[in-house]
What we know:
With 137 residues, the protein is of the alpha+beta class. The protein is 34% helix and 26% strand. The chain has four helices and five strands; from the N terminus they run βααβββαβα. It has helices at residues 14-24, 30-38, 86-103, 121-128, and strands spanning 5-8, 43-49, 55-65, 71-80, 108-111. Strands 1-2-3-4-5 form a five-stranded mixed beta sheet.
Amino acid sequence: MADFRITTLSEAEADEALVLARLDDPSIETHVWRRTVLSQSGEHVVVARRAVGPLVGLARYRLDGDGGPHPVFHLLQLIAVDVLRPAYVASALMGEMLWRAREHHCETFRVETPLPQGVEPMALALASGVCRLHSLF
């Protein structure tokens, strides 16, 4: 697996990261993106790159207190780009997200996704990982 450098998004990288974000949502406007990722709203953005070259990954997350003793880690977005193996980038970013969740003493890791339209209910439940089916026969 390739080595990636994963760092907190800097102001200088905001526009480069917008290119990745637009892979998910081409309608994102530059000023809205910059305001969102550079604000101190509690949302965090990390980016991945190889030793040289452009950004190859982006992850957005936030930490929320839900009244319990430990914060909840919310993964909001993860984008991985590679010509042949984007899963390597995604795996490195997910490893970083889990490390950050543990560093913040989170006991819950949530993945947020928009509610899809027209999806079979069981497919959604199974894909989310919260539903496990067991047959006795």
